[in-house]
Amino acid sequence: MTRPRPTPSATGRLLRADGAGDLVITRTFRALADDVWAGLTEPERTARWFGPWEGDGAPGRTVRVRMAHEEDQPWMEVRIDVCDPPRRLAVSTVDEAGTWRLEVLLSEVDGVTELSLVHHLDTEEGIGEVGPGWEYYLDMFVASRDGTPLPLFDDYYPSMKPYFEGLVADRTPQ
C-alpha cells in the first residue's frame, strides 16, 4: 500500500523596503550550519536536489549549474557574488528570464540551523511562478537531507500560485 504524499504548504513572505521586494522562504534543520552549508555548496550534494555544478566556486567567479530537475536539464551560469561559509552565499544569474539576485543565509542556535532563501526581486511580476518553484527546490533540499522521496513539482504549481500572487495584491497601495 502506498502512503499518500503530504500536501506542501506555501510559506514564502514578501518583504519590501524602498520599493524593492524580497521574497523570503525559510526551512529549519536539526543540523549544524557547516553540514547544511555543505549540502548547498558541494557539487555531489547539490546534484541530489538541484543539480551538479562545475567550475571554480569562488567569489567573483562564475560556475555552470545544471538544472537537473527542469525539462531538458539546461545548464545556467551562476556568478558567486559573496561566499562567507557557513553563513552567507549570494549569487546572481542572467538569462532570458532577466537578472536574478539570490542569497542563502544560515543561522545556527544549539545545533538547529535556519536557512533563509532571499530572492531580491527586480519586479514582483511573475511571483506566482517563482514562489512555488523556490518552495519546491527547498523541499527537494529537505528531502535529499532526510533521505525521503523527492517531492513532485505538480504538488506546488499551479496550486501555490494564488498564494504568492496574493502576497503582491496584499501589498498594493489602496
Give the strand line-up of the largest sheet: 1-2-8-7-6-5-4-3
| Number of E-state strands | 8
Sheet of most strands: 8 strands, antiparallel
Helix proportion:
25-40%
The fraction of residues assigned to DSSP E strands is 35-45%
In terms of structural class, how would the helical and strand content be classed? alpha+beta
| Order of helical and strand elements | EEHHEEEEEEHH
CA-to-CA gap between the ends? Answer: 52 Å
Characterize the overall form. globular
Mean pLDDT: 93
Low-confidence stretches: none
The helix count comes to 4
How many whole angstroms does the radius of gyration measure?
16 Å
Pfam families: AHSA1
Family: Belongs to the AHA1 family.
InterPro entries: ASHA1/2-like_C (IPR013538), START-like_dom_sf (IPR023393)
Domain Activator of Hsp90 ATPase homologue 1/2-like C-terminal: 32-142
Concise overview:
The protein is of the alpha+beta class and 174 residues long.
Kindly describe this structure:
The chain is α+β, with helices and mostly antiparallel strands and 174 residues long. It has helices at residues 33-41, 43-49, 127-146, 161-171, and strands spanning 13-17, 20-29, 53-54, 62-66, 75-84, 88-95, 98-109, 112-121. It has an eight-stranded antiparallel beta sheet with strand order 1-2-8-7-6-5-4-3. Strand 7 (98-109) and strand 8 form a beta hairpin. The chain starts with 12 loop residues before the first strand and ends with a helix. 18% of the residues are buried. The mean pLDDT is 93.
